[in-house]
Amino acid sequence: MMTRVTTRARILVVDDDARLAASLRRALAFEGHQVTVAADGPAALAAARERLPDLVVLDRMLPGIDGLEVCRRLREAAPALPVLMLTALDAVADRIDGLDAGADDHLGKPFALDELLARVRALLRRVEPAGREELRFADVVMDLGAREVRRGLRAVELTQLQFALLERFLRHPRIVLDRDRLLETVWGLDPDTASNVVDVYVGYLRTRLEAGGEPRLLHTVRGIGYVLREA
User: Fold this and answer.
1) What's the whole-number mean pLDDT along residues 138-142?
2) How confident is the model at residue 2 (pLDDT cuts 50, 70, 90)?
3) Residue 132 pLDDT
4) Same-domain check for residues 122 and 143
5) 98 and 146 inside one domain
6) Contact, 225 vs 183, CB < 8 A?
7) Is residue 1 part of a domain?
8) Are residues 145 and 81 in the same domain?
9) What is the pLDDT, as a whole number, of residue 138?
10) Which helix (DSSP H) or strand (DSSP E) does residue 127 occupy?
């Protein structure tokens, strides 16, 4: 019997068996998760770059790039990303290979769906300590506790003020924030102060957020200020 959970996670399912992938998508969605499916190694890496998932369910035997190599690349780019590896190769040596490649857990095929769901819940609990707060928009993730920002798989290095400004936008997505309000809340400056500091720092943020060629998220609203939105 499947149990709903209240924590909603972004899960990437990677398997070239279309029927199994569809079954996993339905089961994980029933538990409240947002599920993306990829059928091969290159598609999995592309999906993770576009939007970093909270957890990956990864088949070992994949076309294009095998699951072990996909796991290694994901682990290099996002060390804390939990990976549950699925495989029909269930010998001890095969499980060791998967763990050495960076997988957090291993499940042999065929498997009971309830067991897979329980392992997913356990992995998500392990990486979401109590009190952790993240802000997310599109492919941008801000970990407030660790003071870290990612865009997809790429780490974004920010100064303290740049971090504070981005936090303000992430807390008010799709809402136009005027320059005067930003001066007050981020810098503590009087709105009557003649300053272009907001424009300068938005420029810095755009440079950092778009350094990997990603699409623009911070847009100018002429005569007013800026808004965080997808094009």
Assistant:
1) 92
2) very low
3) 58
4) no
5) no
6) no
7) no
8) no
9) 92
10) helix 113-127
Q: Which domain holds residue 60?
A: 10-127
Q: Which of 127, 155, 171 is the last residue of a domain?
A: 127
Closest C-alpha among 105, 97, 225 to residue 165: 225
Element (H, E) at 177: strand 177-178
**Rounded Cα distance, 94 and 138, in Å:** 36
Return the higher-pLDDT residue of 37 and 110. 37
Please give the Cα distance from 214 to 151 (Å, whole number).
9
Average pLDDT of 38-49?
94
Query: pTM to 2 decimals?
Result: 0.60
With a cut of 60, say whether residue 33 has pLDDT above it.
Answer: yes
Cis status, amide bond into 42, omega within 30 of 0: no
**Residue listed under structure tokens 């707060």:** 133
* The length of the chain, given as a count of residues: 231
Asked if 82 and 124 count as a contact pair (C-beta separation under 8 A), the reply is yes
**Strand pairing of 134-137 and 148-151?**
unpaired
Note whether residue 63 is domain-resident: yes
